[in-house]
Design brief:
Elements lengths: L15 H15 L4 H8 L3 H11 L5
Length: about 60
């Protein structure tokens, strides 16, 4: 019954920071590293997305 879940938690669990990093990384990939589009996917501001991407060392355009 994993249908409808937005977050995949491994059996051993994950920290909220790991989940956030994964979400930011996935949104950037889906948006071809367009920060504005990735921010829209996550319902956050582009500035907040840029801050999170920098925090996690993710590629930014």
């Amino acid at each position: 019954a994993t249908e409808g879940r937005l977050v995949h938690l491994p059996p051993e669990g994950a920290s909220l920071e790991e989940i956030e990093r994964s979400a930011v990384e996935q949104a950037l990939q889906m948006a071809n590293h367009n920060q504005s589009a990735a921010a829209r996917l996550l319902h956050i501001s582009p500035d907040r997305l840029a801050s999170r991407a920098k925090k996690f060392g993710l590629k930014q355009n």
